[in-house]
Each structure stands twice: as structure tokens, then as C-alpha cells.
Amino acid sequence: MSELVTAIGLVLVIEGLAYAISPGWWRSMAEQLKETPDENLRTAGMFAIGLGVLVVWVARKFLA
């Protein structure tokens, strides 16, 4: 359970850094998201999930 909380904390740190470093870029990306079809967003989300699972698997298998 502590690993899950740590992972969530790290995600928040990374997202916070991204917003702090380049807020204008994030604002323009948010505007572009309105025009992006749902299917493209869904595909990108599924890709991100798969990549995340792969990264966790590699970390557990080879770096632990």
C-alpha cells in the first residue's frame, strides 16, 4: 500500500513540475484537447496504460 501512495505522490510531483515549468504550453494543449476526437484520446489513454504497466513490470522484474 505504501508503494501505491508513493507512486501517486511521484505522479503529483511530476505533474506539478510540468505545470510550474511551462503553464502556457499546458494551456495550449488543453485548447487542442477540445478539438481532438474522443477515439484518439481513448487510444492515447490505452497506450499510456499499456506503457505504464510495461514500465512497472520491467522495474519489478529487472530492477528489484
Describe the structure.
The protein is built from 3 helices and no strands. The protein is flat. It has one domain (2-62). The chain has 64 residues and is mainly α. The protein has helices spanning 2-21, 23-35, 38-62.
Query: Measured on Cα atoms, how large is the radius of gyration?
Result: 15 Å
Proportion of residues in β-strands: under 5%
The string of secondary-structure elements, in order, is: HHH
Number of domains: 1
Given the C-alpha coordinates, what overall shape results?
flat
Output mean pLDDT.
94
Number of strands: 0
First-last Cα distance: 17 Å
Question: How many DSSP H or I helices?
Answer: 3
> Helicity range of the residues?
over 70%
What descriptive keywords fit this protein?
64 residues, mainly alpha, 91% helix, flat
In short:
The chain contains three helices and no strands.
Spell out the blueprint of helices and strands.
Blueprint: H1 2-21, H2 23-35, H3 38-62
